[in-house]
Amino acid sequence: GAGVSQSPSNKVTEKGKDVELRCDPISGHTALYWYRQSLGQGLEFLIYFQGNSAPDKSGLPSDRFSAERTGGSVSTLTIQRTQQEDSAVYLCASSLGGGVRTDTQYFGPGTRLTVL
Amino acid sequence: AQSVTQLGSHVSVSEGALVLLRCNYSSSVPPYLFWYVQYPNQGLQLLLKYTSAATLVKGINGFEAEFKKSETSFHLTKPSAHLSDAAEYFCAVTWGGGADGLTFGKGTHLIIQP
Question: Confidence class of residue A98 from pLDDT cuts 50, 70 and 90?
Fold first, then answer.
Protein backbone atom coordinates (compact mmCIF):
# COMPACT_ATOMS: atom_id res chain seq x y z
CA GLY A 1 0.00 0.00 0.00
CA ALA A 2 0.95 3.64 -0.24
CA GLY A 3 3.30 5.03 2.35
CA VAL A 4 3.51 8.49 3.86
CA SER A 5 3.84 11.11 1.17
CA GLN A 6 5.07 14.67 1.48
CA SER A 7 5.01 17.62 -0.86
CA PRO A 8 6.86 19.40 -2.17
CA SER A 9 10.00 17.30 -2.09
CA ASN A 10 12.10 20.43 -2.38
CA LYS A 11 11.27 24.04 -1.61
CA VAL A 12 13.51 27.02 -2.10
CA THR A 13 12.21 30.29 -0.75
CA GLU A 14 13.41 33.74 0.09
CA LYS A 15 13.86 34.95 3.62
CA GLY A 16 10.65 36.47 4.93
CA LYS A 17 8.30 34.44 2.75
CA ASP A 18 5.72 32.01 4.11
CA VAL A 19 5.83 28.31 3.19
CA GLU A 20 3.41 25.42 3.54
CA LEU A 21 4.54 21.83 3.76
CA ARG A 22 2.07 19.01 3.24
CA CYS A 23 1.89 15.50 4.63
CA ASP A 24 -0.41 12.69 3.55
CA PRO A 25 -0.31 9.90 6.14
CA ILE A 26 -0.93 6.22 5.58
CA SER A 27 -4.64 5.57 5.27
CA GLY A 28 -6.16 4.58 8.60
CA HIS A 29 -3.36 6.03 10.71
CA THR A 30 -4.79 8.32 13.35
CA ALA A 31 -1.47 9.60 14.69
CA LEU A 32 0.73 12.00 12.75
CA TYR A 33 4.09 13.51 13.66
CA TRP A 34 6.32 16.27 12.32
CA TYR A 35 10.09 16.26 12.78
CA ARG A 36 12.86 18.51 11.58
CA GLN A 37 16.26 17.21 10.50
CA SER A 38 19.15 19.64 10.30
CA LEU A 39 22.92 19.32 10.40
CA GLY A 40 23.28 21.27 13.59
CA GLN A 41 20.36 19.91 15.59
CA GLY A 42 19.91 16.39 14.25
CA LEU A 43 16.36 15.04 14.32
CA GLU A 44 13.95 17.10 16.42
CA PHE A 45 10.36 16.26 17.26
CA LEU A 46 8.07 19.19 16.50
CA ILE A 47 4.45 18.18 17.02
CA TYR A 48 2.06 15.25 17.26
CA PHE A 49 -1.54 14.91 16.20
CA GLN A 50 -4.01 12.34 17.43
CA GLY A 51 -6.86 12.74 15.01
CA ASN A 52 -7.15 16.46 14.38
CA SER A 53 -5.95 17.41 17.84
CA ALA A 54 -2.43 18.45 18.82
CA PRO A 55 -2.25 18.26 22.63
CA ASP A 56 1.17 19.86 22.94
CA LYS A 57 2.63 22.49 20.62
CA SER A 58 5.63 23.34 22.75
CA GLY A 59 8.01 21.50 20.42
CA LEU A 60 7.44 24.00 17.62
CA PRO A 61 10.62 26.12 17.37
CA SER A 62 8.90 29.51 17.41
CA ASP A 63 5.53 31.17 17.00
CA ARG A 64 6.27 31.43 13.27
CA PHE A 65 5.57 27.72 13.05
CA SER A 66 2.06 26.32 13.04
CA ALA A 67 0.51 23.02 12.07
CA GLU A 68 -2.94 21.77 11.44
CA ARG A 69 -4.63 18.57 10.49
CA THR A 70 -8.04 18.29 8.94
CA GLY A 71 -10.38 15.36 8.52
CA GLY A 72 -7.98 13.20 10.50
CA SER A 73 -5.82 12.89 7.43
CA VAL A 74 -3.73 15.51 5.64
CA SER A 75 -1.57 17.81 7.70
CA THR A 76 0.14 21.06 6.81
CA LEU A 77 3.09 22.64 8.54
CA THR A 78 3.26 26.38 7.94
CA ILE A 79 6.30 28.52 8.51
CA GLN A 80 5.70 32.26 8.40
CA ARG A 81 8.39 34.84 7.69
CA THR A 82 10.99 32.17 7.01
CA GLN A 83 14.51 32.63 8.29
CA GLN A 84 17.73 31.02 7.11
CA GLU A 85 17.87 28.89 10.26
CA ASP A 86 14.62 27.26 9.15
CA SER A 87 16.53 25.52 6.35
CA ALA A 88 16.25 21.79 7.05
CA VAL A 89 14.52 18.62 5.98
CA TYR A 90 11.03 18.39 7.44
CA LEU A 91 9.89 14.83 7.99
CA CYS A 92 6.40 13.61 8.58
CA ALA A 93 5.49 10.25 10.11
CA SER A 94 2.27 8.46 10.85
CA SER A 95 1.26 5.54 13.04
CA LEU A 96 -1.86 3.63 13.95
CA GLY A 97 -2.22 5.78 17.04
CA GLY A 98 -4.15 5.18 20.21
CA GLY A 99 -1.28 6.07 22.50
CA VAL A 100 0.55 2.77 22.21
CA ARG A 101 4.11 3.46 23.30
CA THR A 102 5.67 1.00 20.89
CA ASP A 103 3.55 2.11 17.96
CA THR A 104 5.73 2.10 14.86
CA GLN A 105 6.09 5.43 13.13
CA TYR A 106 6.34 5.29 9.36
CA PHE A 107 8.24 8.17 7.83
CA GLY A 108 7.77 10.03 4.60
CA PRO A 109 10.68 11.04 2.34
CA GLY A 110 10.72 14.58 3.69
CA THR A 111 10.60 18.10 2.30
CA ARG A 112 13.96 19.80 1.92
CA LEU A 113 13.48 23.50 2.68
CA THR A 114 16.13 26.00 1.69
CA VAL A 115 15.75 29.61 2.77
CA LEU A 116 17.94 32.01 0.84
CA ALA B 1 16.98 15.58 31.02
CA GLN B 2 16.31 12.23 29.42
CA SER B 3 18.47 11.66 26.38
CA VAL B 4 19.90 9.11 23.99
CA THR B 5 23.53 8.94 22.94
CA GLN B 6 25.08 7.24 19.95
CA LEU B 7 28.80 6.72 20.29
CA GLY B 8 30.68 7.37 17.08
CA SER B 9 29.32 9.64 14.39
CA HIS B 10 31.10 7.48 11.81
CA VAL B 11 31.82 3.76 11.90
CA SER B 12 33.78 2.00 9.18
CA VAL B 13 33.88 -1.77 8.79
CA SER B 14 35.01 -4.14 6.07
CA GLU B 15 32.51 -6.08 4.04
CA GLY B 16 31.78 -9.32 5.87
CA ALA B 17 32.89 -7.97 9.25
CA LEU B 18 30.81 -7.52 12.37
CA VAL B 19 28.79 -4.33 12.63
CA LEU B 20 28.34 -2.80 16.08
CA LEU B 21 26.56 0.52 16.52
CA ARG B 22 26.21 1.80 20.06
CA CYS B 23 23.22 3.43 21.72
CA ASN B 24 22.83 4.43 25.36
CA TYR B 25 19.97 6.21 27.07
CA SER B 26 20.02 8.23 30.25
CA SER B 27 17.05 7.59 32.46
CA SER B 28 16.18 5.58 35.53
CA VAL B 29 13.03 4.48 33.77
CA PRO B 30 13.68 2.23 30.77
CA PRO B 31 12.24 3.73 27.61
CA TYR B 32 10.91 2.05 24.54
CA LEU B 33 13.71 1.87 22.01
CA PHE B 34 13.92 1.87 18.24
CA TRP B 35 16.57 1.70 15.56
CA TYR B 36 15.91 3.41 12.25
CA VAL B 37 17.99 3.47 9.06
CA GLN B 38 18.13 6.29 6.56
CA TYR B 39 19.49 5.75 3.08
CA PRO B 40 20.63 8.81 1.10
CA ASN B 41 17.77 11.12 0.17
CA GLN B 42 15.20 8.82 1.70
CA GLY B 43 13.04 8.82 4.79
CA LEU B 44 13.61 6.76 7.90
CA GLN B 45 12.89 3.05 7.89
CA LEU B 46 12.34 1.03 11.04
CA LEU B 47 14.93 -1.71 11.59
CA LEU B 48 13.65 -3.01 14.92
CA LYS B 49 12.08 -1.98 18.20
CA TYR B 50 12.23 -3.03 21.84
CA THR B 51 8.80 -3.65 23.30
CA SER B 52 9.83 -5.31 26.59
CA ALA B 53 8.67 -8.71 25.34
CA ALA B 54 12.24 -9.92 24.82
CA THR B 55 15.61 -8.34 25.45
CA LEU B 56 17.10 -9.64 22.20
CA VAL B 57 15.26 -8.17 19.27
CA LYS B 58 15.65 -9.29 15.68
CA GLY B 59 14.96 -6.88 12.87
CA ILE B 60 15.11 -6.62 9.14
CA ASN B 61 18.18 -7.09 6.96
CA GLY B 62 19.89 -9.36 9.49
CA PHE B 63 20.19 -6.72 12.23
CA GLU B 64 19.51 -7.37 15.88
CA ALA B 65 19.81 -5.44 19.12
CA GLU B 66 19.97 -6.38 22.76
CA PHE B 67 18.41 -4.34 25.53
CA LYS B 68 20.61 -4.28 28.64
CA LYS B 69 18.94 -2.44 31.49
CA SER B 70 22.02 -2.59 33.72
CA GLU B 71 24.06 -0.83 31.05
CA THR B 72 21.20 1.39 29.79
CA SER B 73 22.14 0.27 26.32
CA PHE B 74 20.51 -0.95 23.13
CA HIS B 75 23.39 -1.65 20.74
CA LEU B 76 22.72 -2.67 17.16
CA THR B 77 24.67 -5.54 15.60
CA LYS B 78 24.92 -7.49 12.39
CA PRO B 79 27.26 -10.49 12.08
CA SER B 80 28.40 -9.82 8.53
CA ALA B 81 28.31 -6.41 6.86
CA HIS B 82 27.13 -5.98 3.30
CA LEU B 83 27.87 -3.10 0.98
CA SER B 84 24.17 -2.26 0.92
CA ASP B 85 24.24 -1.61 4.69
CA ALA B 86 26.01 1.70 4.14
CA ALA B 87 23.61 4.31 5.51
CA GLU B 88 22.85 6.54 8.50
CA TYR B 89 21.53 4.73 11.57
CA PHE B 90 19.50 6.38 14.30
CA CYS B 91 18.65 5.14 17.74
CA ALA B 92 15.39 6.59 19.07
CA VAL B 93 13.53 6.41 22.36
CA THR B 94 10.18 7.30 23.78
CA TRP B 95 8.97 7.18 27.32
CA GLY B 96 5.44 8.39 26.97
CA GLY B 97 4.76 7.46 23.39
CA GLY B 98 2.54 9.43 21.08
CA ALA B 99 2.48 12.96 22.40
CA ASP B 100 6.12 12.74 23.42
CA GLY B 101 7.30 11.87 19.94
CA LEU B 102 10.58 10.10 19.47
CA THR B 103 13.85 11.42 20.80
CA PHE B 104 16.63 10.59 18.37
CA GLY B 105 20.33 10.17 18.80
CA LYS B 106 22.66 12.15 16.56
CA GLY B 107 23.05 9.22 14.20
CA THR B 108 25.93 7.02 13.11
CA HIS B 109 27.10 6.96 9.54
CA LEU B 110 28.05 3.38 8.65
CA ILE B 111 30.72 3.00 5.98
CA ILE B 112 31.37 -0.40 4.42
CA GLN B 113 34.81 -0.94 2.97
CA PRO B 114 34.84 -3.41 0.06
Answer: confident
The DSSP secondary-structure symbol of B102 reads P
Select the residue of B41, B96, B102 nearest A105 (Cβ to Cβ).
Answer: B102
Nearest chain B residue to A10 by CA: give it: B41
Among A43, A46, A100, which would you mutate to test the B interface (most chain B Cβ atoms within 10 Å of its Cβ)? A43
The number of beta carbons lying within 10 Å of the beta carbon of residue B5 is 14
Q: Residue B53: pLDDT above 80?
A: no
Identify the weakest region by mean pLDDT among B17-21, B67-71, B86-90, B94-98.
Answer: B94-98
Residue type, B4: V
Residue of A nearest to B92 (CA): A43
pLDDT at B29 over 90: no
Question: Coil, strand, or helix at residue B50?
Answer: strand
Distance, in Å, from the CA atom of A110 to the CA atom of A91, rounded to the nearest integer, reads 4
B40 C-beta neighbours (distance < 10 Å), count: 7
**Phi (first) and psi of residue B84, to 5 degrees:** -70, -5
DSSP string over B66-80: EEEGGGTEEEEEESS
pLDDT at A8 over 90: yes
